[in-house]
């Protein structure tokens, strides 16, 4: 009787032997082989689904896009629609017989429909990234779609190579400008003229400084004169005010001057007194001036006081 865990060894002629395995060991080896097979099959499916191998099993329809500059586009570059891959570049750019630019063949997945009026551009993933073809759909609901083998005009976005070319042209223009400045503006004759102008400017600045010093003295004298004139004007205003006060007191006051200015009779009497004094003196004073003058017509006058002789 043979146990399940034992092996049977048979010796044959000429030293040959055979080992007979039981059914338990054969089942274990079958399970291991099946597991390995399933793993390899799953690995192959993943490679086909997510790798380049799956591209061969998909169907496409061709489109041709004409670009004025398709540098950087290679065979196999992606074609993206709103960031999703919808195909690839079927071949490198080809020169056209008529017109300018190059034709780039595209392969679009047959289940993707590109609306008419879509814009095809050559984009770049970053400044130094790979080139790809970007498709931008027109706004609104699409009414028609591009048919296979359609020729479309494309455009190109600015990338690092375009910036490099523009920078090179800018550097050349800048170099030419600097050379013209060195030859024309910064020539030896112009530098001598500039030096002479700077010397004249220094001289003018020195003369201006001297004039400023003299002008400071003139300004100080003018300030002193203005202060004196202001003081004199203030004194004049004070004198005028005093004069106004004197005149007001002389005309409107109660003193002798106001009486002489306002009372005509008193003024006449004083005039007669002075005339008598001049004619007769103090010792032989007589009132002859009053008799010599004609009597004025009588009119209402205030009573005249008798003067003592």
Given as residue ranges, the uncertain stretches (5+ residues, pLDDT < 50) are 1-6, 297-309
Distance between the termini: 202 Å
Taking all Cα atoms into account, the compactness measure Rg is 65 Å
Mean pLDDT: 76
Structural class: alpha/beta
Helicity range: 40-55%
Taken in chain order, the helices and strands follow as EEHEEEEEEEEEHHHHH
Strand portion, in percent? 15-25%
Broad shape: rod-shaped
**Using DSSP, what is the number of strands?**
11
Number of helices: 6
How can the largest sheet be summarized?
Answer: 9 strands, mixed
Secondary structure elements and their pairing?
Elements: E1 8-11, E2 17-20, H1 23-50, E3 60-67, E4 78-81, E5 84-89, E6 94-95, E7 102-109, E8 119-124, E9 131-136, E10 150-153, E11 155-156, H2 160-185, H3 188-252, H4 256-262, H5 264-280, H6 288-292
Parallel strand pairs: 3-10, 4-9, 8-11
Antiparallel strand pairs: 1-2, 3-7, 4-5, 5-7, 6-7, 8-9
Helix pairs in contact: 3-4
Summarize this entry quickly:
48% of the residues lie in helices and 17% in strands. It is built from 6 helices and 11 strands. Strand 8 (119-124) and strand 9 (131-136) form a beta hairpin.
Structure report:
- By secondary structure, the chain is an alpha/beta fold.
- Among the domains are: 14-50; 58-159; 263-292.
- 48% of the residues lie in helices and 17% in strands.
- It has 6 helices and 11 strands.
- The strands form 2 sheets. Strands 3, 4, 5, 6, 7, 8, 9, 10 and 11 form a 9-stranded mixed beta sheet that branches. A two-stranded antiparallel ribbon has the order 1-2.
- Strand 4 (78-81) and strand 5 form a beta hairpin.
- The termini are far apart.
- The relative contact order is 0.06.
């Amino acid at each position: 009787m043979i146990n399940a865990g034992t092996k049977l060894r048979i010796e044959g002629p000429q030293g040959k032997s055979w080992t007979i395995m039981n059914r338990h060991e054969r089942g274990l080896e079958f399970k291991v082989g099946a597991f390995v097979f399933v793993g390899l099959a799953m690995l192959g499916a993943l490679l086909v689904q997510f790798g380049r191998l799956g591209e061969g099993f998909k169907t496409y329809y061709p489109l041709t896009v004409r670009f004025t500059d398709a540098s950087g586009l290679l065979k196999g570059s992606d074609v993206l629609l709103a960031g999703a891959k919808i195909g690839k570049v079927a071949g490198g750019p080809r020169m056209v017989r008529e017109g300018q630019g190059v034709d780039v063949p595209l392969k679009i997945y047959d289940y993707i429909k590109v609306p008419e009026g879509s814009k095809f551009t050559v984009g770049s993933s970053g400044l130094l990234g790979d080139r790809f073809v970007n498709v931008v759909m027109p706004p609104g609901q699409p009414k028609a779609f591009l048919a296979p083998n359609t020729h479309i005009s494309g455009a190109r976005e600015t990338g690092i190579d375009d910036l490099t070319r523009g920078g090179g042209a800018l550097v050349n223009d800048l170099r030419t400008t600097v050379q013209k400045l060195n030859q024309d503006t910064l020539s030896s004759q112009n530098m001598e003229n500039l030096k002479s102008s700077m010397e004249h400017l220094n001289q003018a600045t020195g003369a201006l400084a001297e004039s400023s010093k003299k002008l400071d003295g003139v300004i100080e004298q003018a300030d002193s004169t203005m202060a004196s004139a202001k003081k004199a004007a203030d004194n004049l205003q004070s004198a005028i005010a005093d004069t106004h006060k004197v005149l007001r007191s002389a005309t409107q006051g109660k003193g002798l001057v106001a009486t002489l200015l306002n009372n005509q009779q008193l003024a006449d009497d004083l005039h007669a007194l002075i005339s008598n004094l001049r004619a007769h003196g103090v010792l032989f004073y007589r009132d002859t001036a009053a008799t010599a003058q004609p009597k004025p017509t009588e009119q209402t006058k205030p009573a005249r006081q008798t003067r003592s002789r």
